[in-house]
UniProtKB/TrEMBL annotation:
Protein name: DNA primase/polymerase bifunctional N-terminal domain-containing protein
Natural source organism: Actinocrinis puniceicyclus
DNA primase/polymerase bifunctional N-terminal domain ranges (all copies): 83-156
Region annotated Disordered, chain positions: 1-41
Pfam families for this protein: Prim-Pol
Length: 264
């Protein structure tokens, strides 16, 4: 039983502080105490060296993933803080296309500490797939789905497509602007054979990557002065979002008229 419990606590040890045990010491001054090291001391020291706050004596050290994201830097709008939030939701990400995507919070913290301005590249086919469409068509489909009361997952906007080859865009008026619907994993890739390449929506799944917005809050996005980077039209919430199946989005896109709507 003890072995089983130790195995279950393996991951928790990385995310929660185990209070040090006090022990009596001969000759200890009145009111004082010594601290007996715990098996997790090395983890806490590593967190401190990486920039995480060290817990004070007797203080509760909260290291829930979302709290880590909030406390990662003085500014919660930093790219690193946003990357930590995505990873905490189970979205594998990397700071470039060459690096292996990960959800490990320590690894994410270190990666964006080294390259704080790096984009957030997410791997498709693990936590979600993506249905990408022309921005005008995508906005029309989004309005239709909202009116029908369809529960959607996150929806993002980008100037050069969700899997871009360029690093900058021209803004909302760019005809290359695209909208990406995050959908249930595996459902987009399964329908690829039904879509002729270059003639309709792009279905992204295993092996593809998308660039995610560097900030979650839309108002903070505008204050940051990012005119053409990816941004959320429907931002993900604090809990793991529910993704619709790809065919739900494809059906709305098939019925959507080819006309632009005002920015949502």
């Amino acid at each position: 039983m003890a072995t089983t419990m130790r195995g279950r606590l393996g991951l928790d040890a990385l995310l929660t502080h185990q209070p040090a045990r006090r022990r009596a010491t001969e000759g200890e001054p009145a009111g004082g105490s010594a601290l007996e090291p715990t098996p997790h001391t090395g983890v806490l020291d590593a967190r401190h060296r990486a920039g995480f706050p060290r817990p004070g004596l007797g203080a509760a050290f909260v290291t829930h993933p979302h709290v880590i994201a909030h406390r990662a830097t003085p500014s919660n709008g930093s790219i690193r803080a946003t990357a930590l939030r995505y990873a905490a939701w189970g979205w594998p990400i990397a700071p470039n296309r060459a690096s292996a995507p990960s959800t490990d919070l320590e690894r994410i913290f270190a990666a964006w500490s080294r390259t704080p301005d790096a984009p957030i590249m997410a791997a498709c086919g693990i936590a979600f797939d993506v249905v990408e469409a022309d921005a005008a068509l995508g906005r029309t489909a989004l309005i239709r789905l909202d009116r029908l009361g369809v529960e959607l997952g996150p929806v993002l906007w980008t100037a050069f497509g969700c899997a871009p080859t360029a690093s900058a865009g021209l803004g909302d008026s760019d005809p290359r602007a695209r909208i990406g619907f995050l959908v249930r994993v595996g459902t987009a890739a399964a329908l690829r054979a039904l879509i002729d390449p270059g003639t309709g929506p792009v279905l992204l799944g295993s092996g593809d990557r998308v660039e995610l917005p560097a900030v979650l809050d839309q108002q903070r996005f505008h204050r940051a002065g990012i005119p053409s980077g990816p941004r959320w039209l429907r931002a993900p919430g604090p809990e793991r979002p529910a993704f619709p199946a790809a065919h739900v989005v494809l059906g709305a896109l098939a019925l959507a008229p080819h006309r632009a709507f005002a920015t949502i």
